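The protein record passed on for reference:
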Amino acid sequence: MKLKKESVILLLVIAALTAYLLLRSEDHTHFKLPRLQAVESKQIDRMVITKGNRHIELRKEDEQWVVGPKAYAADSVAAKNMVRAAADLTFTALVSESKSYERYGLADAQKIHVEAFAGKKKVRDFFVGRRAPTHQHTFVELAGNPDVYHARGTIDNTYDRTIDALRDETVLKYDKDDISTVILNRGEQSATFTRKVKTPEKETDAKADAASKSAKPQIQWADQDGNAVDTTDVNRLIDQFSNLKCEGYMEDDAKEKLKDPLWTVTLKSDQKAYRLSLYDKEGKENTTYPALSSGSPYAFRLPQRRVETFEKSMGRLLKAPSPDQKKQAAKGK
């Protein structure tokens, strides 16, 4: 009887302790995992990202994101990722209350301070540390709260960017189907190619006639003398420049210093002309070429491998080797 009584008491004690621990855990989690004010990505129109002495302002102007004091066009994907990460910031666990931050990448020299604004109102204010060992979370600290939390997602690389890395690298963009004229100028060589549309001839047979009407018009390119040229070669060149990205921008005043391009490609639609000019490398060991385009107000650099691809396409249409190809041929003799 005594044993049975002791067993009942033990079970009651265990049940009481379990209930206490569960309730304490719920209170602890509720208290320690802050619930942030809900905010939608579309509400955020400005962000300030600071790391050490690096201070970056990203803001929306006329529905376009710009970055830095000179309002460079910003990479829209990178900007949207930053905004989304701030709006969707979610804590999943309390990591530390020790106020020891270095191991989490949240020491003063390491952490990234992120501030997001909707108009004049600050809607997010937090610090980003390093990626957690889970590879699914990032260590984050809220402004005004000394504790360290797991935030959902790997957002460390999202915010660890420079102004140059946030600039839109697209320097020439157009709809390939709109281009009707291509003009190549390389040294003393020049050529103009014009698009012509060949309409299929109608057949006398009703079925053949219906098929002819549904067929797409055939595109044929011709040179300045009216001679047909390989359509594939022209289309390849148009395609190569249609969504051109650079490898980085030069100094803002570099545009004024570039003279005498190696070659220029002009592509025209009925409404607009698009132009790209390439300049000689700055030193033989350099692996990039300075360039200008009608799609950017700034001088930029193109990698040598891309330039070589462009020049091969131009060579097929000009029927002559590029200056670089001539140099290489001379060295081989």
